[in-house]
Amino acid sequence: MDSITAPNSSQSTAGFAALREGLLGLLQSAQNADGGWAFHTGGQSRVEPTCWAVRALADGKSGSAEPGIARAIDFLKSKQLDDGSWPANDGMQAGGWITSLTCSVLAGCGEVPTPEIQKAIEAGLQWLCDDYPRDSSGWQKFLKKLQSKKNLVEQSDEFRGWGWTPRTSSWVEPTSFALMAFADTKPGAQLAKAVAERRTMAVGLLYDRMCPRGGWNCGNPRVYGVDGDPLVLPTCWALLALRDAPENSQRALALKWLREEFGNIQSAGSLAMARITLESYGVALPESRRSQVDWPASDLLEQGTHVAAWTALALNPTRSWPEVSRAAETQAAS
Amino acid sequence: MNQRKSELIPSFSRPPSRVLIRKVARYEEDLLAIIHESLTEFRLQIKDKTVLLKPNLVGLDPQGVMNTHPVVIAATRESFLKMGAARVLIGDGPAMDRDTQAILESVRLREFTGQLGRDFCDLNIDDVERVELKTRASRLKELFLPKTVLGADFFVSMPKLKTHHWAGVTLAMKNLFGIVPGSCYGWPKNVLHWAGIGNSILDINAVARPDFVIVDGILGMEGNGPIQGTAKAAGVLLFGDDMVATDATACRVMGLRPEKIDYLAKAGTMLGHLEAGKIKQLGEPVAAVRTEFGVVKEFAHLRDSGEWRVVSRES
Fold first, then answer.
1. ipTM (interface pTM)
2. What is the pTM of this model?
3. Which of A192, A237, B23, B79 has the CB geometry, 3.0–4.6 Å to B36, for a possible disulfide?
4. What span, in angstroms and rounded, lies between the C-alpha atoms of A43 and A214?
């Protein structure tokens, strides 16, 4: 496993295509009768793995025209709560961060969302606009001033993003997914002002929570005066969320960190998302110790539906989410 | 499927608990022999049972400082298989990073256990079941918990011996935060922080009580744990049939007063024994292995001396 692999060799390209086909076949066969996917084949249908499976299977296709995808969309619609949010699991009374991913996926799995799907998306976006984390409320800010632990973490409470679950704190990943939901959907005029306000605060929060040497972890850039270590997946989500934000030095630093870390990644899920992220910015892929073809398709599916879906997406050079930057295409061709 | 039962018994009607301390200076020692011999002393009824080992796999850790060491996990798994277990699963749901596979790679777990296949369970993405929290120590009324945990015949919490910057210590009871699935509650499982860390620990341990505890204190962590603290060699493994008693003993090994840790003090009234007099001490006495662990300022009151020092990787 210590050898260095060049990701763009012709041998890799053929292996990648075969692996992607294998993954898409396995994903199709892993769909449950109710139209959803579980994290593990044969398990409970859940919203998140269903979203990732749909995203991989619908990628580059007409989307909802596929029978399996149409059933999955019905599954997702059926799980929406009355307040417009989606819960992580059946039986949960409150929705959460998965609302963002579901809105993105529903918006991206057809040429134009049907009026019914658009209505579901709008309800989800409205919920996101109304859902404020608890940590940055006026009352909580007042309480923090009284606490002796106020220097435990060094971050600004002026910014507000989203929590994983309602009434908790802002974190990097759910904030990133909400920003992606705003970018992937077309919020109606009645939401435009709220979306713009939330977007500004959320972008500010992401930069505030960035680790000093670039990249992100869950959202603790410094604790007790010690710099936090960035992690691959949170960095990918944040960078994908900031694609539409103005270019700045912090984002460049995060991209630099991810590019340098790429060669050290040891897991299939992180490798896939790092590839997707770097290519979306037009960054040429560095050499890496591991290659996606190190793992058979069945192993990837066993790691989770999301890992199989991320890998299938990463191996599609013409993926629609997120698009491969033209700069990357140019670099790959040269 | 077996279902774990809530067991709230007042301290006065509990039989004494047993905690065994073994001196183990290095991970290179014959851990299989040491762990198997130690487990045998407890006469555990394991034959044909499905055992779930829940180590503390909290983050990327190539130096082996923050996670339960893989050689301890592997030797424990092998020991339970030797004792007749039908199957020994390993499962955890890391709190800060959803890429569990990356953590497994960084600790090289499979180099010690061999291929695990479905014998490793990422508890963050396991199928879940709604569980009512009858203790209501926190404001949480319910949690969705992994079926693999709820269905295990014999559940073993395997923490690392560490101090914690928010909870004071992170041992067998705090280790159960790792069974709360990130796919439902996120990374980190922030709803538990808002509900109160200590009280959440009580609620979770009341509904998913470990049957046994093995603490990896060969190399622990002091100061700004659970991730950014400093390695501290304590040279011990602790074994116990009561998570409260084992955690209390581990605190005493670290030179900390368990009765000053709020959740442990409360746990001592309904979930297990806190008082040294109610714990049958096997193996080494605490005094023979006591190693003073540094704590952050907020937990200076845990130290017998009342002194504190922030110790982190960069200090």
1. 0.94
2. 0.94
3. B79
4. 38
